[in-house]
Design a protein that fits this description.
Rossmann fold, 36% helix, 20% strand
């Protein structure tokens, strides 16, 4: 059955709320409207206003409320309507959500999932197309997850909701309409385990979230050049599957990290450092990075020049092969 990534997320929320009456969903316009991307469609109709409800436009208050509810035994799943709207909640996430288990010497867990539609490719305005994942991956105490397929969207969200620790769940909004033949419910590999989406021998393309599909397209186009590219989907940034990452790079000897976020201090820098530290003698070339430019996210009419595409990925592969 063909299922979109958005439909898989919606089904995961329905199933999680069915399975556990402590799971609650709230955020801006998630109730009556069903979310701006309809990810929470019909949840309020099915479970009532007590378990799926709208909030004021106050992201700090949304996360703060989730922390309080989690302390009293609930399992909140909150939505930041767009990536750039997360910043008012940053202090709550970093100072409290991520710290409570350590602050309480392991006695207090906060099973909170913060859903964040992120990335570009939808022609949106400022603060609607950002990639803030590095901020949260840098914060100890948080899991950071980003699915790139409908099957992973369902499975990773269910696992995140079941986690006793807080999860920042980045949903690639440009891939909400990506379809896959999959029977739901489905269980894929767990959080913290990367997956090879396409095996190859020439070089490894390393991606997560929205760039997984772009890298697969690049790998397909690369066959015309006689290149056999492997595509590794990280699936979670924290915990990072270092063993899976290194195994793939050691097979090919070359690595290109691809993400939408700007290159400087992006998550790709951490990946490049890990690979260089652990697999230096197996590398045939430096680890290269392909990402957005080091600028604020541009106007919609310019985003196609800002975002990594097949041509920019293949150019990086050609540079890698030139060593």
């Amino acid at each position: 059955m063909a299922v979109t990534l958005a439909q898989a997320l919606n089904r995961a929320l329905h199933d999680a709320m069915d399975a556990d009456d402590k799971v609650v969903v709230f955020g801006e316009d998630v109730g009556r409207l069903g979310g701006v991307f309809r990810i929470t469609d019909k949840l309020q109709e099915r479970f009532g206003e007590g378990r799926c409800f709208d909030t004021p436009l106050a992201e700090s208050g949304i996360v703060g409320t989730a922390i309080g509810m989690a302390l009293y035994g609930w399992k909140p799943v909150v939505e930041m309507q767009f990536d750039g709207f997360t910043y008012p909640a940053f202090e709550q996430i970093v100072s409290h959500l991520a710290k409570m288990r350590n602050r309480s010497r392991g006695t207090v867990a906060l099973p909170v999932v913060v859903r964040i539609p992120f990335g570009g490719g939808i022609g949106a305005v400022e603060h609607h197309s950002e990639s803030p994942e590095a901020y949260f991956a840098h914060t100890a105490g948080l899991k950071v997850v980003s699915p790139g397929t409908p099957a992973d969207a369902y499975s990773l969200l269910r696992e995140s909701i079941a986690s006793p620790d807080p999860v920042i769940f980045f949903e690639p909004k440009r891939r909400y309409w990506l379809k896959e033949d999959v029977e739901l419910p489905v269980r894929t590999e767990p959080v913290g385990q990367a997956v090879v989406r396409r095996a190859g021998t020439t070089a490894t393309l390393i991606a997560y979230g929205p760039m997984v599909r772009t890298c697969l397209d690049a790998a397909e186009a690369a066959t015309a050049e006689g290149w056999d590219l492997e595509v590794l989907d990280l699936r979670s940034l924290m915990p990072l599957d270092e063993a899976g990452l290194l195994a793939s790079v050691r097979r090919t000897g070359r690595a290109i990290v691809v993400h939408e976020a700007q290159v400087f201090a992006g998550f790709g820098a951490e990946v490049a450092a890990r690979v260089t530290e652990q697999a230096f003698y197996e590398l045939e070339a430096p680890v290269l990075r392909v990402g957005g430019f080091d600028i604020p996210y541009p106007a919609a009419k310019l985003e196609e020049f800002h975002l990594p595409d097949v041509d920019r990925i293949l150019d990086a592969v050609e540079r890698s092969l030139g060593y």
